[in-house]
Here is the input.
Amino acid sequence: MALADSARGLPNGGGVRSPSGGPLLTPSQSLDGGAGRRSGYITIGYRGSYTIGREAQADAKFRRVARITVCGKTALAKEVFGETLNESRDPDRPPERYTARYYLKFNFLEQAFDRLSEAGFRMAACSSTGTCAFAPEQGGPADDKIWTSYTEYVFCRD
Here is the structure.
């Protein structure tokens, strides 16, 4: 049975909730009230794609983020994301080990950023790469280009 929010030292007895649904925390607090708080890094990554028609018209077709991946120490990922962390690709990973096989059950980057911020993480770095391909082989018009990108955000907690 989980401790009550007030017993864990959460503000306002835990009655105030964040946009991500978790307890509202200040950046200096962790989900365990600060006791035994672990430092470390978590990397969030996602692939995106969109199609741009002839001469970069304003009708670009964006696709939703299909999956947000989580890389880092298993214990940290579980602390931050809790039940929203999908562990099905690496279910028996020990807490002290690292993994790059978890992903989130939701598809909103802002929700992931909220959870990391609430757990005392700050963004340390980000990186993105993109490629372009013409779409005729996918059945699209000859002038359409498909852009794909991969973006990673590195968060740290001291």
